[in-house]
Amino acid sequence: MIDIHHHLLFGLDDGSPDLETSVAMARMAADDGITHITCTPHSNHRYHFDPDVNAARLAELQQQLNSRITLGLGCDFHLSYDNIEDALKNRTKYTINQKQYLLVEFADLMIPQGMTDTFYEMKIAGIQPIITHPERNHTIQRHPSRMIDWLREGCLVQVTASSLTGRFGRTAQTMAFSYFDKNWVHFIASDAHNLNSRPPIMSEAYKVIENKYGKETAERVCVTNPGAAFHGSEFPPQPEMLGLYDEPATPPRKSFLSRLFSTK
Fold first, then answer.
1. Would you say 146 and 111 are in contact if contact means Cβ atoms under 8 Å apart?
2. Domain chopping of the chain, boundaries
3. Which of 70, 72, 131, 210 pairs as cysteine with 36 (C-beta 3.0–4.6 A)?
């Protein structure tokens, strides 16, 4: 399995606090059957994102692991105005392994109305947005139809493995399964932060998916699609997403970043 969302780099955010914990997390992931990890420190108002520091921490960690697992670099990218502007100017600064795929995270309390335009602008710039754990986002839980415009715009979706096993509550679990029912899920990832409450485990979710949707689906969201994102290759053909055209699309807006935080 390939884990594209994992807070493995130590001392950078609310993930691993030190090298010893990072080594233990990587070994736990390897024991679980994970072969590749994208290390994705936060970039938000609380945590500064520095590619040089990230690369140095990754090299130190990889040396400790003796090639037992393959590591890459990415970002848990918060969709703030400043971040978006910087990403559009520096296309590969935040993307997975400096290719085209970018993990994007919404704030819990508010998602600006102009976000569809932002995703369009990212796509024009050669960035492929991957919406992380929408099933856990409180705004999307209250307004699930907002996902439709983003999926129509070509966004991909990553669900947290533990959501499928109930770790994040019944609402997140129900939404995760509803996304699977409509073929809206493209990736499963651990979003691991530690060894206990947020561990680097994907095999339990793999089994749940295999039992409910079949092995082909489990392989697609845990191996094939994450492999494309990790290596920056062309995204494979996917099953048709259901329910995207059951209601009218939101009318197009006239601008992009300048209206990002408009509520009209």
1. yes
2. 2-234
3. 70
CATH code for the part of the protein at 2-234: 3.20.20.140
β-pair type (128-132, 36-39): unpaired
- Annotate 196-220 with b (16+ C-beta within 10 A) or e (fewer): eebbbbbeebbebbeeebeeebbeb
pLDDT along the chain (264 residues), means of 10: 98 97 98 98 96 97 90 97 96 97 93 93 97 97 95 98 97 98 98 97 98 98 98 97 78 51 46
Query: What is the distance between the alpha carbons of residues 202 and 243, in angstroms, rounded to a whole number?
Result: 28
Q: How many residues does the chain have?
A: 264
Residues 202-260 have pLDDT tens digits of 999 999 999 999 999 999 999 999 999 999 999 999 999 999 988 655 555 544 555 55
Q: CB neighbours of 134 closer than 8 A, spacing ≥ 6?
A: 106, 140, 147, 157, 159, 175, 179
Looking at residue 38, what DSSP letter applies? E
Residue pair 176/208 in contact (Cβ under 8 Å)? The answer is: no
> How many angstroms separate the Cα of 167 from the Cα of each of 25, 39, 164, 171?
18, 22, 8, 11
